[in-house]
C-alpha cells in the first residue's frame, strides 16, 4: 500500500520557519514567512486583541455551540463593511454575500471551488495569476481543477510593475476570463498599481467582461490606513466589475493561528446573491461544516465597537510604521554606508510586508546557507523580520552576496 505515493517537497515558506527554528547560530534571522514581529523579534499580540480577549473571557453567556454554516453574522457583516466600505452599494442593495472562512487561504479555496462549479466558463476553467504570486495560489486553484496561467506583473528590469504587459494580457484574454488581483501590498513583490493604473485595469476588465478574484490579505499593511488599502476593491465595486474578495485577519490583527477570514461575493442582484449564498452554504457544509468561533468573536468585537475599532487602527499603524522605518534603514545602510552595487530605492518604494530584493535564486540560497538569513528562493524578504538589532547584519550580508 502507498507505493505509488510520491514524496512531496516541503512547503517553500513554512520549511524556512522550521529550518530557522532548528538553526542554533545566534545571528540567524527569519525573513521567510510573512508574519509580523516587534522590534525585539517577538510575535506581537495586538493590544486591542488583548482587550477584546478580556471582554470575551468575562462574558458568562458565551458557549461553544456551533456557529451558523456561513459564520458569525456580526463578524461577516462587520468584515464586509471593512473591505467594501460601510456605504457600499453592494451592501446597501443586498448584493454582497459574506461567508466566514478559514482565514484567507480558506476564502481563496471556497471562492475557487465555487467558481469551479458555477462560473460560466468559456472553455476549460483557468485563472490568470500575476507572475509572480503567492506560491499557494497555484496549488489552491489546481486542487479544484482550475488551471493557473500567468499574466505579466513584475518587471525585473525596473523592479516595478510591468503595466503594459499586464494590460496587454487583460486585452488578449478570452472575454469573461478570471483574473486574480492582489487588493494591496502585493505578495511577494510589494509592487502595487497606482490608483490611475487601477482605473485602467478596471475599465479593461469591464470592457472584456472579466471576473476579478481579489485576494486581500494585507489590508492596512500597505499604507497603514484600512480604508485607503481597500480603495481598489471599492472602486471596482462602484464601477460594476463582477468580483469576489478573499479577506484575512491573520496579518492585520495578528491572528495567524486563529484562522479568521471571509469570502465576499458581490452579485449583480439581490436575488442572484441569495442563490450564491445558498450554494456557498452547501459547499461550506461539506468541507468544514461550521467555521470556528473564537477569532471571529474577537474581530466582531473590534469591528463593532467604536473605541476598539479606533484602538485597532492605531495598532495597524504601529505595525505598518515599524516596517516603513525598517525599509528606510535598510536602504540607508545599503546605499549610504555600504555603497552596495545597484540601486536600492525599491526597498522604500515597495509597500506592505514584503520586499522583492532582486536577489536571484543562487544569491538567496547563499543568504540562507552562509548567513543564516532565511528568505524565499525568489528573493523575497519579509520586512517584518527586520529590527534595529539585526538590520545591520542583514545589510552587510546582502552587500556581501551582491558583491559575490
Ligand atoms: C506568506 O506569504 O509568507 C504568508 O502569506 C504566509 C503563508 O501562508 O504563506
Give the topology.
Layout lengths: L13 H9 L6 E2 L16 H11 L15 H12 L4 H4 L3 E7 H16 L7 E6 L3 H9 L3 E6 L1 E2 L4 E2 L1 H10 L5 E5 L12 H14 L2 E6 L9 H4 L1 H9 L3 E6 L11 E7 L3 H18 L6 H11 L1 H32 L8 H4 L4 E3 L4 H11 L1 E2 L5 E3 L8 H13 L1
Parallel strand pairs: 1-12, 3-4, 3-7, 7-8, 8-9
Antiparallel strand pairs: 2-10, 5-6, 9-10, 11-13
Bound molecules: (2S)-2-hydroxybutanedioic acid.
Description:
The structure is a single chain. The protein is α/β, with parallel strands linked by helices. The protein has two domains: 14-44 and 321-403, Aspartate Aminotransferase, domain 1 (Alpha-Beta Complex); 73-304, Aspartate Aminotransferase, domain 2. It contains 16 helices and 13 strands. It has helices at residues 14-22, 47-57, 73-84, 89-92, 103-118, 135-143, 163-172, 195-208, 226-229, 231-239, 270-287, 294-304, 306-337, 346-349, 361-371, 391-403; strands at residues 29-30, 96-102, 126-131, 147-152, 154-155, 160-161, 178-182, 211-216, 243-248, 260-266, 354-356, 373-374, 380-382. It has a seven-stranded mixed β-sheet. Strand 7 (178-182), helix 8 (195-208) and strand 8 form a beta-alpha-beta unit. The protein starts with 13 loop residues before the first helix and ends with a helix. Bound molecules: (2S)-2-hydroxybutanedioic acid. (2S)-2-hydroxybutanedioic acid binds at residues 13, 33-34, 134, 136, 187.
Amino acid at each position: 500500500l502507498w507505493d505509488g505515493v510520491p514524496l512531496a517537497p516541503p512547503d517553500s515558506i513554512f520549511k524556512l520557519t522550521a529550518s530557522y527554528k532548528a538553526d542554533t547560530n545566534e545571528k540567524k534571522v527569519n525573513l521567510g514567512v510573512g508574519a509580523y514581529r516587534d522590534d525585539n523579534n517577538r510575535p506581537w499580540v495586538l493590544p486591542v486583541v488583548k482587550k477584546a480577549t478580556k471582554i470575551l473571557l468575562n462574558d458568562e453567556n458565551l458557549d461553544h455551540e456551533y456557529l451558523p454554516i456561513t459564520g458569525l453574522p456580526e463578524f461577516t457583516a462587520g468584515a464586509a463593511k471593512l473591505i467594501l466600505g460601510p456605504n457600499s452599494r453592494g451592501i446597501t442593495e443586498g448584493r454582497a454575500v459574506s461567508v466566514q472562512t478559514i482565514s484567507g487561504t480558506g476564502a481563496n479555496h471556497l471562492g475557487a471551488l465555487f467558481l469551479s462549479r458555477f462560473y460560466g466558463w468559456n472553455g476549460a476553467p483557468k485563472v490568470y495569476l500575476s507572475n509572480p504570486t503567492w506560491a499557494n495560489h497555484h496549488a489552491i486553484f489546481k486542487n479544484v481543477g482550475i488551471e493557473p496561467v500567468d499574466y505579466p506583473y513584475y518587471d525585473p528590469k525596473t523592479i516595478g510593475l510591468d503595466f503594459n504587459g499586464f494590460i496587454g494580457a487583460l486585452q488578449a484574454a478570452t472575454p469573461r476570463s478570471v483574473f486574480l488581483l492582489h487588493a494591496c501590498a502585493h505578495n511577494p513583490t510589494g509592487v502595487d498599481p497606482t490608483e490611475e493604473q487601477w482605473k485602467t485595469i478596471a475599465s479593461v476588465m469591464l470592457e472584456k467582461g472579466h471576473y476579478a478574484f481579489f485576494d486581500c490579505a494585507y489590508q492596512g499593511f500597505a499604507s497603514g490606513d484600512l480604508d485607503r488599502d481597500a480603495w481598489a476593491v471599492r472602486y471596482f465595486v462602484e464601477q460594476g466589475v463582477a468580483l469576489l474578495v478573499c479577506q484575512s485577519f491573520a496579518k492585520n490583527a495578528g491572528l495567524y493561528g486563529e484562522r479568521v477570514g471571509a469570502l465576499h461575493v458581490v452579485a449583480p442582484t439581490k436575488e442572484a446573491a441569495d442563490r450564491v449564498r445558498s450554494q456557498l452554504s452547501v459547499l461550506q457544509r461539506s468541507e468544514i461544516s461550521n467555521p470556528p468561533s473564537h477569532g471571529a468573536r474577537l474581530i466582531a468585537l473590534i469591528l463593532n465597537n467604536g473605541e476598539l475599532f479606533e484602538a485597532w487602527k492605531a495598532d495597524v499603524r504601529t505595525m505598518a510604521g515599524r516596517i516603513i522605518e525598517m525599509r528606510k534603514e535598510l536602504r540607508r545602510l545599503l546605499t549610504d554606508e555600504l555603497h552596495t552595487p545597484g540601486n536600492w530605492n525599491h526597498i522604500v518604494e515597495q509597500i506592505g510586508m514584503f520586499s522583492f530584493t532582486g536577489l536571484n535564486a543562487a544569491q538567496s540560497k547563499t543568504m540562507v546557507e552562509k548567513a543564516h538569513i532565511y528568505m524565499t528562493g525568489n528573493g523575497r524578504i519579509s520586512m517584518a523580520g527586520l529590527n534595529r538589532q539585526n538590520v545591520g547584519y542583514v545589510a552587510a550580508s546582502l552587500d556581501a552576496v551582491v558583491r559575490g
